[in-house]
Write a structure and sequence with these properties.
With 165 residues, the protein is mainly α. The protein has helices at 2-43, 46-82, 104-108, 111-131, and strands at residues 141-146, 149-154, 162-164. The chain has two domains: 2-133, no CATH class; 135-165, no CATH class.
């Protein structure tokens, strides 16, 4: 019985790791999107928000992968739990469960991800229209200094940057 319990513990550790990875992916997505929104609001530029339409689906697909792998190992856990002590081989290969709910597309379109990521996309749409595109109206000057040299850039100016000593 000891070997079976140890094998189940190994599988449970993998399931826990996949679940934590999924949680971290969602956290990183929210953090990155929030930073993009902050930049967009600061510069009143809609272009920043457009980047979220690349970021959100990328995180969605990655999260779907972790969900699918977690499901495969849950199936392996169920199988090992029903085995006899003599048939425990400590096999951790769950690839045979990559069918049905264990596939990547099934993970991407799982119930939890179909709630989280479309809401993120809807929020991106709202933010994009709330910010508006004031970048063409703004005539800003950006000054960068390094040591004794400063560089002034004026948005909308056809001239190149001129260093000032």
């Amino acid at each position: 019985m000891e070997a079976k319990i140890k094998h189940l513990e190994f599988i449970q550790a993998i399931i826990t790791r996949m679940s934590q990875n999924s949680f971290l992916v969602k956290g990183w997505c929210v953090t990155l999107i929030s930073a993009i929104y902050a930049l967009a609001a600061k510069d009143a530029a809609r272009d920043y928000v457009l980047v979220t339409y690349i970021v959100i689906p990328s995180f969605w697909v990655l999260d779907g992968f972790f969900i699918a792998v977690e499901r495969r190992y849950r199936d392996l856990y169920r199988e090992v739990a029903t085995r006899s002590e003599a048939s425990i081989d400590f096999d951790l290969d769950a690839s045979r469960f990559a069918v049905g709910k264990g596939t990547w597309p099934a993970g991407i379109f799982s119930k939890t991800l179909l709630v989280f990521y479309p809401i993120m996309i809807a929020v991106a749409l709202v933010v994009m229209f709330l910010i508006g595109d004031n970048s063409k109206k703004a005539n800003k000057t950006v000054v960068a200094t390094a040591g004794n040299v400063s560089l002034s850039l004026r948005s909308g100016s056809p001239t190149s940057a001129v260093p000032h000593f």
